[in-house]
């Protein structure tokens, strides 16, 4: 048995797990949103290409990484449903949306219905929830057609809050996320997020999963072993760590440079894939849709003695700069973003994309949760009958002057690049 490598990548958690058309309940769910079973939608192609693209962007040497590409994808899909022109084109290109806009959201409706129907079989907990939160004074600025898409295709909740009460609004949103992630994701939104964005909206996706292994790790088999923090298993990288152990028939494959193990859950539609590379630093560049398909095709039932660490991971990450590097530019530029399909205001743009994720793997099973928040900034609500104001946003280096008005004589002049906070 090869020695356990330093980092076990967990791929295909809850984002790529549902089998389309698995049972009658799924069919009923699809019919209720107006999609026939003949609709050709491939969740693997839609989500995984984006997953691997994002992974290559986020991966850092010698650092843990855990995200829900499905959560991020869904949150951006809600934004995309109200994007127009070049803004929509850039989002579609980065996210890999291949369907026409008026059909793309139907894909998410169908897939979300499939995922949520898994819980009906009582073999695992899996739930996806979406919501839009807006300042109550801005409710009439939201485009009715956009609200309909969110409700019909994303099963999204709609909440209007008093954003003037920043702490109360942040608490409401955070409790919403906590309830839908079994308290695994907390403090998703700060009161500063609300204070800065009273004229805009906040979109949130939350996903939660908990399932037991089909072949559980016996507690008596868990022992302290050496876990190496580099792929060469250098003695200097060794740490004492609790390792679980189980022997059973699993789907398994050995390919050049990789061992691949599929561990099924009691819920047959769910599994976790473990990939053990000869060299962890090479894995990001090798990950793509074709590699993934080759790995899955190579899996065959085989008796396996599996050693897996008993561990948990938590991650919080801001994604704006990463999406910019991937090619999504206009959505973050107040002078170029076109989200006229969302609100009847000018200058609506994405101000923040924030993602939090949690994973825990134990003898009896595993638990995972994630949430993605997209904060879309806009000026304070103004009636569309009135002229829209000019926006001056000093959120980058600027000059400032104190002048003597009678003769416009400059008394003081400054350049602000790194403003220093005034402490009370």
Would you mind describing this structure in some detail?
With 424 residues, this protein is α+β, with helices and mostly antiparallel strands. It folds into two domains: 9-212 and 312-377, Antithrombin, subunit I, domain 2 (Antithrombin, Chain I, domain 2, 2-Layer Sandwich), CATH 3.30.497.10; 219-309, Alpha-1-antitrypsin, domain 1 (Roll), CATH 2.30.39.10. The chain is 28% helix and 30% strand. It contains eleven helices and 14 strands. It has helices at 24-32, 43-58, 69-80, 85-95, 101-117, 144-154, 166-180, 191-196, 283-286, 289-298, 320-326; strands at 9-11, 124-135, 157-161, 201-212, 223-228, 238-255, 258-264, 271-277, 300-309, 311-318, 349-361, 365-377, 398-404, 409-416. Strands 1, 5, 6, 7, 8 and 9 form a six-stranded antiparallel sheet that branches. Strands 3-2-4-12-11-10 form a six-stranded mixed sheet, sandwiched between helices. Strand 11 and strand 12 form a beta hairpin. Helix 3 (69-80) runs antiparallel to helix 4 (85-95) and helix 5 packs parallel to helix 6. The radius of gyration is 24 Å and the shape is elongated.
Short structural summary:
With 424 residues, the chain is of the alpha+beta class. It has helices at 24-32, 43-58, 69-80, 85-95, 101-117, 144-154, 166-180, 191-196, 283-286, 289-298, 320-326, and strands spanning 9-11, 124-135, 157-161, 201-212, 223-228, 238-255, 258-264, 271-277, 300-309, 311-318, 349-361, 365-377, 398-404, 409-416.
